[in-house]
């Protein structure tokens, strides 16, 4: 009789162990402009070797590895980019994601010491390393986030009607990309990006490049400590929720509620956990990332974020999927 017991292998564990190698393959492909060259027509190993300045041997190694990872596809003997690679990793395209992807290398060595960080007796601070970043680090992060945020901002503009709002305050708005997308969609809307001074200097440039300096302004400061500006009727906290612990989020929600007029709205877009806190993996990863950064932040569940807004006084609070398995949007009204 055949053994009906399911055999347990090591493939899943090996793939997790090799995860950093897979990241390195992706980063090398971006740095070599491999995906851009493929998009431009380099479709054989010989073509890719010539276009990327690789030996035929190393070109074959890279192409095979990228194909095994699903970054490239082989069709009728020729290589093409996978659909998401073509959309996000080809230089010059509006949604180019390469600069953001390469940022993962900046803290790579820290991840190798995760156990040490988790057992450190050093207590976390509210923002950890974010408070200590220099101008160059802020600039790199802010510029890298622009295209990513612009795509998300366009998505928000389609999901939510801002036509009845006049002034939106973007807490920790970074590059200002959400505000740019919203102001392009809603001509009556103005916006303020509330972020650190070193960030706002770069944000002002990005806003000017977008031709919206007359409608989008920056407010340098720390929104966890400094006064919220008056006159806003919509407030956003997008993409940075995991930097804060529950106590800090409650304070932010209360201050937002106090700053808004009746009929005002608050949106929180974040990598939220499901209510059982079993995933998604991206949210769980961002959560543990905060241990490396020394902050009090962690990932929050949809139920927790809904609770923070309701405790502050917001009504009709609802959580909806924003980007499948990545981002949730929680919205509440005053």
Automatic annotation (TrEMBL):
Alphabetically ordered keywords of this record: Methyltransferase, S-adenosyl-L-methionine, Transferase
Gene Ontology molecular function: any one: O-methyltransferase activity
InterPro entries, alphabetized: COMT-like, COMT_C, COMT_dimerisation, SAM-dependent_MTases_sf, WH-like_DNA-bd_sf, WH_DNA-bd_sf
GO biological processes: methylation
Domain O-methyltransferase dimerisation: 16-82
Regions that span the bilayer: none
Pfam families, A to Z: Dimerisation, Methyltransf_2
Name of the protein this chain belongs to: Methyltransferase domain-containing protein
Organism annotation: Abyssobacteria bacterium (strain SURF_5)
